[in-house]
Amino acid sequence: MPQLLEQDDKGIYCAVADVYIDPWKPVKKAFVTHAHADHARPGSAQYVCVDASREIIKHRLEATNVDSLPFGKPITVNGVKFSFHPAGHIIGSAQIRVEHKGEVWVVSGDYKTENDQLSGGFEPLRCHTFISECTFGLPVFNWQPQETVFNEINKWWNTNKEDGKVSFISAYSLGKAQRVISGLDGTIGPIYCHNAVENINEIARAEGFEIQDTMRLNIEMDKKSLTGGLIVAPPGFMNSNYISRMKNVDLASASGWMNLRGARRRRAVDRGFVLSDHADWNGLLSAISATEASKILVTHGYVNVFSKYLQELGYDAQILQTEYEGDEVEQEVVADEGV
Amino acid sequence: MKAFSTLFTKVEQTTSTNAKVQALVEFFHEAPDEDKIWAIALFTHRRPRRTISTTLLREWAAELANIPAWLFENSYHIVGDLAETIALVLPANEHQIDKSLSQWITEISELKKQDDSVKKDWIITAWSGLNKNQRFILNKLITGGFRVGISQRLITKALGKYLEVDDSKIAHRLMGDWSPFDTSFEELMLSQDFKDAISRPYPFYLAYAIEKELEDLGSADTWSAEWKWDGIRGQYIYREGEIFIWSRGEELVTDRFPELHTVPNGINENFVIDGEILAYYEDQPMNFQHLQKRIGKKTVGKKLIKDVPVVFMAYDLLELNGQDMRHKTFAERRSLLEDLASQSKSEHLILSKLIEFNDWDVLRKLIKEARERKTEGFMLKNLASPYRNGRKKGDWWKWKVDPYTIDAVMTYAQRGHGRRANLFTDFTFGLWNEEGNLVTFTKAYSGLTDVEFQEISRWVRRNTLERFGPVNAVKPVHVFEIAFEGIQESRRHKSGVALRFPRILRWRKDKKPEDANTLEDIKQLLQE
């Protein structure tokens, strides 16, 4: 008997409903967990997402055929019940719950278990089969509470300001950037955002998300006038002429990878703040346990190691070979967008 | 430990050299002398003897972290550093222990003769009372290999600033065989002759690869040229009746080369000579792999000495009868070196010959013979140059022959670790055999830009055929140009060849897999 959800060369497919979830090739009907480029790809005839993600998906995919639903409200397609539930990953990110004849699957997309007050608190959903990411599925990844990280960031910004420097934080434009901004102490100085970031900020504000005031970075601005301020821009912008020719700038990166010394050195940043939009080791394990699922399919990340460990814990865990890539693709997508 | 850990954090949190030097100077001002000397020792790669094996450390860390051993090992593979892996997997500390750096090191060395149970109690107590950063440092003190972005040059600069002494003097004082267990900060940095001074080598002068046209160096008659020999750079020291041989990695390797233990017959003077240790047989250097056999062994047997005889190929004279010669010109030093070598009747001390040339074209022609002569190319030295400290541009240049290259197909990819934990960076390559199959012939893991690594990693994730543990078999699609320095027959490898220093030269996106070279092509090189 075919399974409720299967993977084919286009994506995760529900044959009964003829619906794809986060397909990587164009399809007729695509349910999308969130707007990151590896999950929401252009070219499909119809998109369905959660309300909070609609405008962002329209903007990023330049798509008009986007339908949306509020969190928790089911839609039935050919007898299969679909609903969106908070995933806590980024603004408008959702898990997709799929129910048919009493069998429940959950596609979690990307998620994190700490509530960042922007992305909606991760909602544990009981299910039979749980499809989980494991970007940071190793016991070396253990995040500190975000308050601690934000304190470090603000302290660093303040010190730079006192030293007459500009602060620069690289954060991908959708999600991480807004989260960083939400943690900044705006009384220290002005916050400048790269176009790619500010475009998302504007959409998010219009959708009712509370994002403090920021200014659009303009390369015509006198660089001296930026002193004491903080720039939020996608990682690719760090290597731009604009930044590399800037004197008196202190570079930082905000990412889960900054937990590893090696990754910090590779980025060649002055500071690496460990701030991730993905669940850490314990986050993954507790989320999985809360689903009470017996079958776990793991997608992108340390899939070999993580699935093996889940098997030792007694789960029926397998690897699902997808084309999702975690945040890496996000960093490249915006790299070419100039100011 | 707090001061040292603060120093460490500051150094880690900046990419600016000045800020690092500043942090070091501040540390020297604040830390007691016994911590200073240990900090210097650690930053110059001297470390206390390991008293807890890494096997035990791994076992106890996994136990404390409550994870199975295989999971710890997999994490270690990704992180790429044992000390860091342990620091990251352990649960957060609930109290804080304060001890000085030297106190920690003393305790570590005292564990030497203790039972494993005592060691275990000690380390678990220590881990439980330190934060992530301090734990990492403690683990590094035990496991060694303390690389933290502080180069010898940086520590030299900071000490120079702190002590208000010229950097080159500091660099020299830091050289050689000293240990904080029997040398104090004051002895090392401030006294002229302490007990280990007679073995002390000079900092090596290292050359960069030439990056401009020969004509831009100026007139050919102001330069000297020698063959660049492929051995181990070393210093041959004879002072007060004792002989010391140092390798460029500042390792005392006297024991490995008994041929050099007697002062070359006929020489009555004390000296420090810079040169190359070479395996040498019947007036010809032997392949580097032969020399490797000798480096690998602490004690050298008679047979090995007979099979792989060693010479010291002299390049330069740094000290003569106690007088530092480094400020003299290369021409002057060379003439003194020739005088000295001419007194020698030993077959184990050989003078590196100067090549006669009156214009640059002579060298351009001659370099074609470099491989045949078992050399890597030329060393060019300005005749007026002093002997400098460390790697400096301008007066000395190395001019290496172009490497061999071959186009090969990528067949396997493996995730990197440490710096590149989230990318695929270690690749295996194959060449076509007569049956039209790809035969693996080498691995290579350097030579691509970060952007290219990202691109290929993304491709690997989507085009994996099969997984073997951390290794992914990929579709044989991409062609890369592989460069290497040498090739030998090998019975251990399926391909029948072993390469020296293989690396990726470029990604040949213009080529299809069928355009890649064959095994036959590479075997042709064996004949050359």
The gist of it:
Chain A is an alpha/beta fold. Chain A is 25% helix and 24% strand.
Topology:
The complex is a heterodimer of chains A (339) and B (528).
Chain A: E1 6-7, E2 12-14, E3 19-21, E4 29-31, E5 46-50, H1 51-61, E6 66-69, E7 75-77, E8 80-86, E9 94-100, E10 103-107, E11 129-134, H2 146-162, E12 166-170, H3 176-183, E13 191-193, H4 195-206, E14 215-216, E15 230-233, H5 241-244, E16 249-254, H6 261-267, E17 271-273, H7 281-291, E18 295-301, H8 303-312, E19 316-319, H9 328-333
Parallel strand pairs in A: 3-4, 4-5, 5-6, 10-11, 11-18, 12-15, 12-16, 13-14, 13-15, 16-17, 18-19
Antiparallel strand pairs in A: 1-2, 2-3, 7-8, 8-9, 9-10
Chain B: H1 2-12, H2 17-30, H3 33-43, H4 54-65, H5 69-79, H6 82-89, H7 101-110, H8 116-128, H9 132-143, H10 152-163, H11 167-173, H12 185-190, E1 205-206, E2 208-209, E3 223-229, E4 232-239, E5 242-247, E6 271-281, E7 284-285, H13 288-295, H14 302-307, E8 310-320, E9 323-324, H15 330-343, E10 349-351, H16 360-366, E11 375-382, E12 390-391, E13 396-400, E14 404-415, E15 424-432, E16 438-444, H17 450-462, E17 464-468, E18 471-474, E19 479-484, E20 486-489, E21 497-500, E22 503-507, H18 519-527
Parallel strand pairs in B: 1-12, 2-13, 8-10
Antiparallel strand pairs in B: 3-11, 4-5, 4-6, 6-7, 6-8, 8-9, 11-13, 14-15, 14-18, 14-19, 15-16, 17-18, 19-22, 20-21
Helix pairs in contact in B: 1-2, 2-10, 4-5, 4-8, 5-6, 6-9, 10-11
Descriptive notes:
The complex is a heterodimer of chains A (339) and B (528). Chain A is α/β, with parallel strands linked by helices. Chain A has helices at residues 51-61, 146-162, 176-183, 195-206, 241-244, 261-267, 281-291, 303-312, 328-333, and strands at residues 6-7, 12-14, 19-21, 29-31, 46-50, 66-69, 75-77, 80-86, 94-100, 103-107, 129-134, 166-170, 191-193, 215-216, 230-233, 249-254, 271-273, 295-301, 316-319. A seven-stranded mixed β-sheet of chain A has the order 7-8-9-10-11-18-19, with helices on one face. A six-stranded mixed β-sheet of chain A has the order 1-2-3-4-5-6, with helices on one face. Chain A is globular, with a radius of gyration of 20 Å. Among the domains of chain B are: 206-400, 2-Layer Sandwich (D-amino Acid Aminotransferase, Chain A, domain 1); 404-527, OB fold (Dihydrolipoamide Acetyltransferase, E2P). Chain B has helices spanning 2-12, 17-30, 33-43, 54-65, 69-79, 82-89, 101-110, 116-128, 132-143, 152-163, 167-173, 185-190, 288-295, 302-307, 330-343, 360-366, 450-462, 519-527; strands at residues 205-206, 208-209, 223-229, 232-239, 242-247, 271-281, 284-285, 310-320, 323-324, 349-351, 375-382, 390-391, 396-400, 404-415, 424-432, 438-444, 464-468, 471-474, 479-484, 486-489, 497-500, 503-507. In chain B, strands 4, 5, 6, 7, 8, 9 and 10 form a seven-stranded mixed β-sheet that branches. In chain B, strands 14, 15, 16, 17, 18, 19 and 22 form a seven-stranded antiparallel β-sheet that branches. In chain B, helix 2 (17-30) packs across helix 10, helix 4 (54-65) packs across helix 5 and helix 4 (54-65) crosses helix 8. At the A-B interface, helix 6, helix 8 and helix 9 of A face helix 5, helix 6 and helix 17 of B.
